């Protein structure tokens, strides 16, 4: 390995050069934690007190949820939303005089948590653009990437993000203040996660399971998953590889995190899949007069028209086709071979890379997130092979319906939600996308 880069003035050298870190991020297929890479980042000092002094009276939108656990995931649609300052948030968490709590005073801090999540730093610091330079993703091999491409997360104990998988890219997460526990599940566990697109959020596939308090009678296949659990401490950076499921919960009274989603070449096909999914979801839900109003996640501004969705699908297919053409031209230029090559499907690529790089330098500066020991008498799922990913049959699809819903009687009417659940299952969408791209390929 080449020598590690020199640290900034007054700091120790970093254990990985930007190119070494980038290679690990783009090639590892299991989550890892980087250590000793960000001690010289100004953003490492962004605790709640400091951010409160910088933002002063500028409010943030907080999501409010209940600390009491039940077996249903606490989706964003089940939460309340308030506007408050970080100063009020601090006083509320500390339990000081209620007259200092502002909008938080409607919620007992012993019963509720608060989360300012998905806050784009470019918006948060629109009047303090220099703050964006405090985040230095260039140290991980992504020059020019700083706070403009990052999000801020400020939460109290118990604040959580429901279990989901991101459709695009991989995720780098810096823990600044407090600790957060991450429950991660590999892509091969998808059939056992009971995926759903309701509530609908572009690029997020949610699990119907509350992974920290699962209802195993309703979701028996969840027992076959392979959870990887890690508690992230301040100064550590977690890599969440492509298509890993994750549930995140704040451990300490106040937590601050900064993340950035890193684009990948494989996102071109994923964007086609997302466009197909959005077209189907909006078509079904808009046509169903019985659809509850909360089928759209609060992160989505409006329901696009069918014409808009088809236009966006066409653009995604066009971008994918252009990318494939450029990649083939580049390959042929290097090898002198102009013969056609069969494109590996996304399922084959994902299944072929379900092991970490043998050369990953695990040690004091890079820690793998290991699977948790299996519970007694509970089986674990095997990773799907490339053939299994490609040759999906009815038997290999997840049994997404609840056990009681599968007992159809003569008076049982199937809901549009149940039909939609099957249509937008990730494996079905993958097959539809493959067929669409094959038919439209030149």
């Amino acid at each position: 390995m080449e020598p590690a880069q020199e640290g900034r003035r007054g700091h120790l050298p970093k254990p990985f050069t930007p190119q070494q870190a980038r290679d690990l991020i783009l090639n590892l297929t299991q989550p890892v934690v980087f250590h000793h890479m960000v001690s010289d980042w100004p953003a490492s000092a962004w605790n709640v007190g400091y951010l409160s002094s910088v933002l002063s009276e500028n409010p943030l939108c907080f999501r409010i949820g209940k600390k009491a656990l039940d077996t249903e995931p606490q989706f964003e649609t089940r939460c309340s939303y308030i506007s408050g300052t970080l100063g009020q948030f601090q006083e509320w968490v500390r339990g000081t005089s209620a007259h200092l709590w502002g909008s938080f005073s409607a919620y007992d801090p012993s019963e509720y948590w608060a989360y300012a999540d998905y806050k784009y730093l470019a918006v948060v610091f629109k009047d303090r653009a220099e703050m964006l330079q405090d985040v230095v993703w260039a140290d991980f091999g992504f020059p020019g990437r700083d706070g403009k491409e990052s999000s801020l997360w400020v939460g109290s104990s118990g604040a959580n993000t429901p279990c989901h998988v991101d459709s695009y890219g991989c995720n780098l997460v810096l823990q600044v203040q407090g600790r957060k526990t991450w429950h991660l599940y590999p892509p091969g566990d998808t059939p056992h996660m009971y995926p759903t697109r309701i509530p609908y959020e572009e690029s997020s596939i949610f699990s119907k399971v509350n992974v920290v308090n699962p209802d195993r009678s309703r979701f028996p296949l969840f027992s076959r998953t392979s959870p990887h659990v890690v508690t992230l401490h301040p100064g550590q950076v977690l890599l969440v590889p492509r298509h890993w499921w994750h549930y995140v919960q704040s451990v300490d009274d106040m937590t601050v995190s900064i993340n950035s989603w890193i684009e990948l070449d494989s996102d071109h096909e994923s964007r086609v899949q997302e466009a197909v999914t959005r077209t189907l979801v909006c078509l079904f839900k808009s046509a169903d007069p019985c659809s509850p109003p909360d089928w759209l996640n609060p992160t989505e501004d409006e329901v696009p028209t069918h014409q808009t969705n088809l236009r966006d699908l066409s653009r995604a297919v066009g971008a994918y086709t252009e990318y494939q053409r450029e990649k083939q031209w580049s390959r042929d230029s290097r090898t002198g071979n102009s013969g056609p090559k069969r494109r590996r499907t996304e399922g084959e690529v994902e299944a072929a890379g379900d092991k970490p790089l043998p050369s990953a330098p695990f040690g004091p500066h890079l820690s793998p997130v290991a699977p948790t020991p299996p519970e007694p008498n509970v089986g674990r799922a095997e990773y799907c092979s490339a053939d299994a990913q490609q040759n999906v049959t009815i038997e290999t699809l997840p049994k997404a319906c609840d056990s009681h819903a599968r007992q159809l009687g003569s008076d049982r009417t199937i809901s549009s939600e149940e039909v939609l659940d099957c249509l937008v299952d990730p494996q079905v969408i993958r097959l539809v996308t493959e067929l669409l791209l094959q038919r439209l390929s030149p």
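Residues 285 and 417 are 8 Å apart (CA to CA). The two ends are 43 Å apart (CA to CA).
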